[in-house]
Amino acid sequence: DVQLVESGGGSVQAGESLRLSCVASGPNHEIYDMGWFRLTPGKEREAVALIDTSGNRNYADSVKGRFTISQDNANNTLYLQMNSLKPEDTAKYSCAAGIISDIAERKWYSLNYWGQGTQVTVSN
């Protein structure tokens, strides 16, 4: 199985930045599309950013222009650079590996593997 381990969460002030990391391991992990999701109690899980195996990317409208998803294939690491953080970005962020069906609509055919998540808390 593919294993995904996130790190980089924490507590910051509004306007500050954080970079989340997700290290992938296991057989054939490089064949999967990757994404970052966030979950806040009482809300539906939101697909924040996704990147396919060709390097195409898309973002939720709420984070466009502030968040950047990237990959370091040499180190099997997925990143989420989060700038200009807002209190409404507070959530548990998880990375996932799967197969994207429509990157423009941020839709997935399947989400096969998940990390354990890392908490991001943004205060005023």
Distance between the termini: 40 Å
Please tally the β strands and state the result. 11
Number of helical segments? 0
How would the global form be characterised? Answer: globular
Mean of residue pLDDT?
96
**Over all CA atoms, what is the radius of gyration?**
13 Å
Q: pLDDT below 50 for ≥5 consecutive residues: which ranges?
A: none
The helix-strand sequence is EEEEEEEEEEE
Strand content: over 45%
Regarding quaternary structure, how should these chains be classified? Answer: single chain
Helix coverage percent = under 10%
Helix and strand content put the structural class at: mainly beta
| Biggest sheet character | 7 strands, mixed
Which SSEs are present, and which pair or pack?
Blueprint: E1 3-7, E2 10-13, E3 18-25, E4 33-39, E5 46-51, E6 57-59, E7 67-72, E8 77-82, E9 91-102, E10 107-114, E11 118-123
Parallel strand pairs: 2-11
Antiparallel strand pairs: 1-3, 3-8, 4-5, 4-9, 5-6, 7-8, 9-10, 9-11
Describe this structure in words.
With 124 residues, this protein is mainly beta. It is built from no helices and eleven strands. It has strands at residues 3-7, 10-13, 18-25, 33-39, 46-51, 57-59, 67-72, 77-82, 91-102, 107-114, 118-123. Strands 2, 4, 5, 6, 9, 10 and 11 form a seven-stranded mixed β-sheet that branches.
Would you kindly provide a brief summary of this structure?
This protein has 124 residues and is mainly β.
Task: List the keywords.
four-stranded antiparallel β-sheet; 124 residues; seven-stranded mixed β-sheet; single chain
